[in-house]
Amino acid sequence: MQPQTLIEVQEVTQRFRARVALDRFSISIDEGTVVGVLGPNGAGKTTLIEVVAGLSRPVSGAVRWRGELVTSPFPRDVRRRIGVMTQHVALYDELTVRQNLRFAAQLFGVEHRDNRIAEVLELIGLSLRAKDRAGSLSGGMRRRLALGRALLHNPELLILDEPTLGVDVEARHALWGHVRWLRGTGKTVLLSTNHLDEAEALCDRIVVLRDGRRVTEGDPAELLARTGHWVEIDCLAGSVPDVRERIVGLPGIGRIDVTEVGLTVHVAHGDSPDAVTIAALDSGLVQSVRVRPPDLLEVFQSLTEEADG
């Protein structure tokens, strides 16, 4: 069976005074998929989240929920089907973990509240901290509580706006585990992030944004493959120019960044980095050679250059 489209944004433009945050942007999210929105700060990710959540009325364009046109603020029955975890968790610090969840459960009219709260506490790993004040939790635990609050009413669409912002590595991977579990249960998730590894680890499809416009989209493996490889070469003292001469002109060389101690060589998609590696090693002028995938900035630069090309 073909997956059904849960929510669709069609040619949406959003402005804040003179600044265009979204420019005729479109995206569709199918049931049971995790869609990532990737881009640097200021790309329009949070604005898109607000439009999809029904928190912001666009200047033009349309939003459809299961094919039906909806306008912000969304009707109550649609809002109840959406869970949102924002960048700023906005918990009630003076209340306990359980009280925060109970308050949210009352707002959403959750049935069998105590049982559902117990289930969510177990899911987010905070059962033993249920009586602790939210203000006493670490940053990672606060994020987990915010995720639990968004999940409490069992929404059809879960929206996560940079869910691991400002947390340590351990907390980040714990949150990844929760999202993977949701993915495994068939939840529909829209996730915005600055981190390529996060999008790669969690998403079925990635949409890359720049200045409120779509740069490109595809599955993570496809986008990574399209950006090629980077070869990092550490050279012996004074040998950088000689090593560069041996590499310039080899197949697939896109760019060579030079420092006093080495080179970073971009090899385009479809070309092997082997020729660069062999040429560097055969020179006898290098200390080490490493082939690595691109980081977020390099992926973004490569994809935007491809789109502009």
Characterize the structure shown.
By secondary structure, the protein is an alpha/beta fold. It folds into two domains: 5-224, 3-Layer(aba) Sandwich (Rossmann fold); 228-293, Lrp/AsnC effector binding domain/regulation of amino acid metabolism (RAM) domain (Alpha-Beta Plaits). Helix content is 35%, strand content 29%. The strands form three sheets. Strands 6-7-8-3-9-10 form a six-stranded mixed beta sheet, with helices on both faces. The protein has a four-stranded antiparallel beta sheet with strand order 2-1-4-5, covered by helices on one side. Helix 3 (97-108) packs across helix 4 (113-124) and helix 4 packs across helix 5 (139-151). The longest helix is centred in the middle third of the chain and has 16 residues, at 169-184.
Set down the secondary structure blueprint.
Blueprint: E1 5-16, E2 19-30, E3 34-38, H1 45-52, E4 60-65, E5 68-70, H2 76-79, E6 82-85, H3 97-108, H4 113-124, H5 139-151, E7 157-161, H6 169-184, E8 188-193, H7 196-202, E9 205-210, E10 213-218, H8 220-226, E11 229-235, H9 240-247, E12 253-258, E13 262-267, H10 274-282, E14 286-292, H11 296-308
Parallel strand pairs: 3-8, 3-9, 6-7, 7-8
Antiparallel strand pairs: 1-2, 1-4, 4-5, 9-10, 11-13, 11-14, 12-13
